[in-house]
Design a protein that fits this description.
The protein contains 23 helices and 15 strands. It has about 575 residues and is α/β, with parallel strands linked by helices. It is elongated.
Length: about 575
């Protein structure tokens, strides 16, 4: 970080407190100067008005200044310059004018304490020019005396700049130029106090680079340093001006977003991480709640980060807090059976015949309306509801799909999404097999869909659970294949039967010959390994034609059917299969 680009070290609260003191003492100095001025002097009444203005400004800063955005303080400092220069012009005698000239050093201190170096020099130049002009307008201050005042102002500004640079280094990470942990902790205390006082939201985020040790071990520490600097640069440019982004230590970063809710922060984090998709990052998000201490807020962010890692890394999760009303509503909806299951067809590409479905949870909140699965599944994971949600989806799906299974000839694949938190639960395999035994649904027709990144994380408990369930007859699919970091060469060692290509991979196969060739190559390799392939997100006939040409086995997407309740799917697909059989 260059000296010319050093960041401000003062928070709005600190700036407001400093300006309150300077304006108040400026007013007091003005009163003393008026009392000590020659009785024959001029301008005493005008000076009294300026003194009153200084005291009013001090009161305003004390009451509301901490809430102002940083740019507002440029106006306040410039106003101070104008006030002091006016007082020097109006002073009743030379001695009083020189007192006001000396007060211009307040501006130099403020400028270099509050602002970046370039802006600070501009403020100081304005202050020096203003006081020089004011003293010369009077006509009773020699030029060299005015220059001596200027020298004092400049000396104090330069000295303050040096102290600020030292303070900045104490709270800055030398590698990335970001705030370090010490600076982050200080900012956290300031922003939490402001959030408590104003009632505005505040969200904390912990971000951890995935597999960073592997980068250092494989490519060296210089490569690791380049990755850290790149992440810092991307986030610094993408975040709002009032955000605090810090290197928390090692490969972990921390972020504070004042005025931002947890949901807004989650969307922002996902958007920014997409800008360096080749660098995996797990993120935990937590919104400040009434009564939270700084430690409690960061613990909740850390809990959300753990959830993101347990779910397979490369994702962001929101910790809404155990007291969240939305969590209570979700628990009540599960208990009342108000979380519904929709299913989307999976078809044989060659024949167009439905061979299975994917079960998808859907929840409509009575006030908020439809809640995205990504959001309420994350809530369930973070608040001990994921086991109940997973069992509810499986039990509901096999119950409601039995008529459809019979309509299509007694065999119907059922895809069930499973999270890392579920797989790490020792009781999960027993819950699944118990539901299947009660319903009579064949284990061989159930496909557990896990994300590619979850298998890449290779939690021993998760992989062991999958092996137990495969031994019981269930199959395992890698969901969203093509978006994570798994090595193709490891597919023969993982407990996997099916690859499900992510919709983002399929979206361009009809327009990109290279993408189509890649798909054909991977389909051939998967077939050689004994794996089936499902293409997700198929929306056009052109995409369907490409899938047929490259030999892709199965597909799903809006072209074949949108997610719908099982009863709405049973009749049309039952008739279609009857027609095929005839």
């Amino acid at each position: 970080m260059s000296r010319s680009q050093s960041s401000e070290v003062a928070t709005p609260r600190t700036m407001a407190a400093t300006l309150t003191v300077f304006y108040a003492f400026g007013g007091l100095t003005g009163i003393l100067a008026i009392i000590g001025a020659s009785s024959a002097g001029r301008g005493r009444e005008a000076l009294a008005g300026l003194v009153l203005a200084a005291f009013v400004a001090a009161a305003v800063m004390s009451r509301w200044g901490a809430r102002w955005p940083r740019p507002a303080f440029h106006v306040v400092v410039a106003a101070g310059t104008t006030l002091i220069a006016s007082a020097a012009v109006l002073s009743p005698d030379t001695a009083t004018a020189m007192v006001y000239g000396a007060m211009m050093s307040f501006i130099a201190v403020d400028a270099f304490f509050f602002f970046r170096t370039t802006a600070a020099f501009l403020h100081m130049a304005g202050a020096v020019s203003a006081i020089s002009a004011a003293l010369q307008i009077r006509g009773d201050v020699p030029v060299f005396t005015a220059l001596a005042v200027d020298a004092v102002i400049v000396a104090l500004g330069v000295a303050t700049r040096g102290l600020v640079l030292l303070a900045s280094r104490a709270t800055r990470d030398p590698l990335t130029g970001l705030t370090n942990r010490r600076g982050f902790d200080s900012a956290l205390e300031e922003l939490m106090a402001a959030a408590t006082r104003t009632g505005l939201p505040l969200t904390a985020v912990l971000l951890d680079l995935d597999h960073f040790k592997q980068i250092n071990d494989t490519d060296g520490h210089q490569a690791g340093d380049r990755v850290l600097r790149r992440v810092a640069d991307v986030w610094r440019q993408a975040l709002p001006a009032d955000a605090v982004f810090a290197r928390h230590g090692g490969d972990e970063f921390a972020l504070l977003l004042p005025g931002t809710t947890g949901d807004q922060a989650l969307d922002m984090v996902r958007r920014v991480t997409a800008e360096h998709a080749d660098i995996g990052m797990s993120c935990g998000v937590a919104e400040h709640q009434i009564g939270d201490s700084a430690a409690q807020l960061m613990r909740r962010a850390d809990s959300a980060l753990y959830t993101a890692k347990a779910a397979g890394r490369g994702r962001a999760e929101l910790d809404a807090g155990e007291s969240s009303e939305l969590v209570r509503d979700l628990a009540a909806a599960l208990a009342a059976g108000e979380v519904f299951v929709h299913v989307q067809p999976v078809v044989d590409v060659a024949s167009g015949r439905m061979i299975g479905v994917e079960a998808l949870a859907r929840w409509t909140h009575p006030v908020l309306g439809p809640v995205s699965p990504e959001r309420f599944v994350a809530l369930a994971e973070q608040n001990g509801l994921i086991a109940a949600l997973g069992e509810h989806v499986l039990r509901t799906a096999v119950t409601q799909l039995t008529p459809l299974r019979l309509a299509v000839g007694g065999s119907l694949g059922l895809g069930i999404n499973v999270s890392g938190r579920e797989l790490c639960d020792p009781a999960y395999p027993q819950r699944v097999t118990a539901v299947l035994a009660e319903s009579g649904w064949p284990a061989s027709d159930v496909v557990l869909e896990v994300t590619e990144s979850l298998l890449e994380a290779q939690s021993s408990a998760a992989v062991a659970a999958l092996q137990v369930l495969r031994a019981a007859g269930l199959r395992v699919a890698i969901d969203d294949f093509g978006t994570g970091y798994s090595s193709l060469s490891r597919l023969d060692t993982l407990p996997v039967d099916i690859l499900k290509f992510d919709s983002s991979f399929i979206a361009t196969v009809a327009e990109s010959p290279r993408r189509a060739q890649m798909l054909e190559s991977i389909v051939g390799m998967a077939r050689a390994l004994g794996l089936s392939v499902v293409a997700e997100g198929v929306e056009t006939s052109a995409q369907d034609e490409v899938l047929k040409r490259v030999g892709c086995t199965y597909a799903q997407g809006y072209l074949y059917g949108r997610p719908a309740p099982a009863r709405e799917l049973a009749a049309p697909w039952g008739r279609a299969h009857a027609a095929v059989a005839d």
